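Data deposition worksheet. Section B asks for the primary sequence of the deposited chain exactly as it was used as input, without tags or linkers unless they were present during the calculation. Section C holds the resulting structure in token form. Section D is free text for depositor observations; keep each observation to a single sentence. Incomplete worksheets are returned to the depositor.
Section A, Depositor: J.P.
Section B:
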Amino acid sequence: MIYTSKLIEDAVNAFCKLPGIGKKTALRMVLHLLKEPEDTTRIFTESIAKMRTEIKFCETCNNIADGQICSICANPSRKKELICVVENFRDLITIENTGQFSGVYHILGGLLSPLEGIGPDQLYINQLLERIHQDRPKELIMALSPTIEGDTTVYYINKLVNDPAILISGIARGVAFGGELEYTDEITLGKAIVRRLPVDMLQQ
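Section C:
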């Protein structure tokens, strides 16, 4: 693609670094911003720069937050005795959008995958165990993608917790095995959360 402006070319190349954005789409975005009032473009760029420099991660659950504690953990109406364990922020948002969960979350930051060199030390598993010891939740919902890596992670955490006073459940298999949680439709995922099962039953 030939450009008549180096500034336009640099802006297009910057947008192309975003996932799923090709040069034609990037060019449309750049030209759209170019037509907008200067204040609009300035607010756009400043908000992105501020997000990148000021964003924090919740000290309790690892969720993306504006402060030390995220809005979910800080909400007194959330059921602290019910912890939903997820792989990442996208899965948390997907579950929140179902409107079926009123507890709190714990983001692991990934799944166990020995082939890729991802072990327990690379995830927030020890932090989860400390949280369980401190807060004594009644139930852990293992809302991890139904893949080999997800099931391995569920099995590993289940063995570590090993506390009969804590129910460890998993989302019902309305979510197809081998699928990614974030791509599951909200109705199916919501029903899977409501119809969760003890982990021991899921592994049979």
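Section D:
The longest helix spans residues 38-54.
The chain is about 40% helix and 15% strand.
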